[in-house]
Design a protein that fits this description.
Layout (H helix, E strand, L loop, with lengths): L4 E5 L6 H14 L3 E10 L1 H12 L7 E5 L6 E9 H10 L4 H16 L9 H15 L9
Parallel strand pairs: 1-2, 2-4
Antiparallel strand pairs: 3-4
Helix pairs in contact: 3-4, 4-5
């Protein structure tokens, strides 16, 4: 288990142990220290409420990342993921739910490393790194799979 990593899930099929393994691998990949990281799998309604309250965005999203670190190689933050939107995305993009969960975790971690997908220039760079990591760390993140 990764020290200073907290995983919470409203979806019991998500394996917390597998997420610890994925974060451990990504931590080594980027030579990161982990001050604190919280990964929470919550409902789409709850994520929208947080999006509206803290970011002043009144719309649904599949992920929100809060970065509290001042250092590039030290993680201190939160990744909030809508497991309901992850299921919908998996169907929409014809991929497995497990792979979509992995994509969202990697996406959130990249945001904590100051990767950005907020414009046309940065989006392809972040997507390329995201795809590389998803394929490299092909962990099964669902319990009983």
């Amino acid at each position: 288990m990764v020290k200073n990593l907290q995983v919470y899930s409203e979806d019991p099929s998500i394996s917390k142990r597998a997420i610890h393994s994925l974060i451990s691998s990504l931590k080594s990949e980027f030579n990161l220290s982990l001050s604190f990281l919280s990964i929470n799998f919550i409902s789409s309604t709850e994520l929208r409420r947080i999006n509206k309250k803290y970011l002043k965005h009144d719309y649904f999203t599949d992920i929100i990342t809060f970065n509290y670190s001042k250092k590039i190689n030290e993680i201190d933050g939160e990744i909030l993921i809508s497991f309901e939107d992850a299921r919908l995305n998996a169907k929409k993009y014809k991929t497995k739910y497990d792979k979509e969960i992995r994509r969202l975790i990697v996406h959130g971690l990249l945001h904590l490393l100051n990767y950005n997908d907020n414009n046309k220039k940065n989006r392809p760079l972040m997507k390329q790194m995201e795809n590389k990591l998803i394929n490299r760390y092909n962990f099964t993140l669902l319990a009983g799979k």
